[in-house]
Amino acid sequence: MSKKLRKSRGVNLPPLIPLSSPRSPYEKIDVFSYKATEIRPNLWLGNHKDAHDKTNGWTRIVNVTNNVECVFPDVTYHQIKIDDKCSQPLISNMSDAVLFIKEGLYCGDKVLVHCYGGVSRSAAIIIGYLMKIERRELMDVYNEVKSLRDIVSCNLDFMGQLLMYADTI
Known about the structure:
Layout: E1 6-8, E2 11-13, E3 37-40, E4 43-46, H1 48-51, E5 60-63, E6 76-79, H2 91-106, E7 111-114, H3 121-134, H4 138-148, H5 156-166
Parallel strand pairs: 4-7, 5-6, 5-7
Antiparallel strand pairs: 1-2, 3-4
Helix pairs in contact: 2-3, 3-4, 3-5
């Protein structure tokens, strides 16, 4: 069975893949019941509760929030102060975040990337990291990350910024 390609600005694109989970849009999801998810060895995606749980052994944390404190003095932090809203500067923070994660994994650190719920902002950072480091396409990485953590749902503005980021790598 062949996949029908879409055209955008003269470029063939893969078929659209729904960004929402297969759940009913009326189903309420308790994102805080999800524990951190290991995306790659020593690279974890989680929420603010995971970031404040010392038993996880994080040695490096990317905090993608405006309002969650960096609480452990023995952990190396990189904070990206953005909200999960349109027009937030995700792309301008991506290079520093990718470098921070890459350095941590190289040094053997246990790296957590978190936002408040572990759904959109932190997922977008991890997706950008994997696109850059593994030289992979956005939807390929997005679908893999979502298969590992089914509550992942980057807001549409972040998806648009990730598409623009793909053109720079």
